Task: inverse folding
């Protein structure tokens, strides 16, 4: 009986492993090569924006908050990235977008920070739950700023790029600067 149980268990594990290999190209997760988990939050005008609505573009998912000093110090680099790449031609994408996920609790502080830091793109979202944010939980965000760069198919290609490293990674994806 133990031998039969062992073989059944071995068979089930083998089949499960085979299924994981077959579906790894569509695996949703946080590792390089995984499809980025869906995010769907309200923007500053209370309209939902889904991350998947940006498919076809290279997307920087940027987790930040108005009260976060390191985030605010990184924002000039994020602005420079947006300015540099928003009109660039990409090898396998129609463009570049930033999906900014705020871990704020206070809507007016969030909106003021967007204006003060000149974060001039449309895809600013938050559930205004701070560290209890579903986005922070889904992406295992333990500190900010934190980011994920995804390709036009929604696959994670890099994580936690700051400063010039972010520019260098995006440079690899464009046709012409």
Result:
């Amino acid at each position: 009986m133990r031998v039969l149980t062992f073989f059944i268990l071995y068979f089930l594990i083998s089949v499960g492993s085979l299924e994981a290999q077959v579906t790894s190209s569509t695996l949703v997760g946080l590792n390089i090569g995984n499809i980025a988990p869906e995010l769907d939050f309200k923007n500053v005008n209370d309209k939902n924006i889904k991350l998947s609505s940006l498919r076809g573009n290279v997307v920087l998912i940027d987790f930040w908050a108005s009260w976060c000093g390191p985030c605010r110090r990184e924002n000039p680099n994020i602005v420079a990235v947006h300015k540099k790449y928003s009109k660039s031609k990409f090898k396998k994408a129609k463009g570049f977008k930033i999906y900014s996920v705020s871990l704020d609790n206070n809507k007016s502080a969030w909106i003021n920070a967007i204006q003060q830091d000149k974060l001039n793109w449309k895809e600013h979202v938050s559930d205004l739950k701070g560290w209890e944010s579903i986005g922070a939980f889904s992406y295992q965000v333990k500190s900010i700023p934190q980011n994920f760069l995804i390709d036009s198919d929604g696959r994670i290609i890099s994580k936690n790029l700051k400063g010039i490293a972010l520019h260098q990674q995006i440079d690899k994806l464009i046709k012409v600067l």
Summary: Confidence is low (pLDDT under 50) at residues 3-22.
